[in-house]
């Protein structure tokens, strides 16, 4: 399950503007989701307009970098991956996109990211008794909490999600984990769930989360055995 050569998956860094890239990519996802009929997934309020969310996200990025460097974490064992695509040194830049120049002069375009946590399930999953999380051996799993690719770069992101999933799978296997879990929005004819199924995840069960003055948020919990 090697990462395709056109993509580089690396650890997050606070010095390369990764925090700004992650926040702006979350924002850019909203109009894209609206364009494909998935506006109910995350709503329409830009993430960058939610100050507490921004502060918490930047804190998590710092914690993830510290965990990667020292194996110590003040919170959950969070790891953040950035997926990049190498591009010509003199090529035209995509408006609003995030670029990085490596020490050897190569130029990379950031096209997505993933947040993963070791031995952890979100509380909105553990509260769903019908999912039987007690049977999931939470002490030996990895949870793919969120994965987003940058809609601003168009077709340059094609394959970036698959590259991230391969990287997370390898991360899990190298740590001797049994399974990789995630949950996804189950609205809009389960298009997102079908995508994850194509990447090798299998459905555990559906669930829903009540939302004040709105329809419930419908989701699906999925699992991938690391031996696959």
TrEMBL record:
InterPro entries with a match to the protein in the record: Acyl_CoA_acyltransferase
Gene3D superfamilies: 3.40.630.30
Domain of life: Eukaryota
Protein name: N-acetyltransferase domain-containing protein
Lineage: Eukaryota, Fungi, Dikarya, Ascomycota, Pezizomycotina
